[in-house]
Amino acid sequence: MQQIIKESLDNSINYADYCRLMHKLVLDKFTTGDDISEANINYTMLNEARMSRWNKKLEIAESEKAIIKGFSTEVIWLVITESWCGDAAHLLPVINKVAELNTNINMRIVLRDDNENLMNLFLTNGSKSVPKLIMLDARSLKVLGVYGPRPSAATKMVDDYKHIHGSLTPEFKEALQRWYNKDKGQTAIKDLTKFLKKQTPSFYL
Question: How many C-beta neighbours within 10 Å does residue 56 have?
Answer without folding.
Answer: 8
